[in-house]
What does this fold into?
Amino acid sequence: MNKGIGIALLVVGIVLVVYGMNASDSVSSNISRTFTGAPTNKTLWLLLGGAGCAITGAVMTFRPAK
It folds into this structure.
């Protein structure tokens, strides 16, 4: 059961990171980066959430069973 959830989290995390990378190249993110020096909040949340999901999913998937 935990391996299935781990694989699902890993896949969702990878998809979110890829979507966040695409959002970081958007026009609004470039404008935000020009004026504030940082990308938009949406981009940051996608990247951080995706990384968190991917790490949690990898730990759940590859941790040895008890």
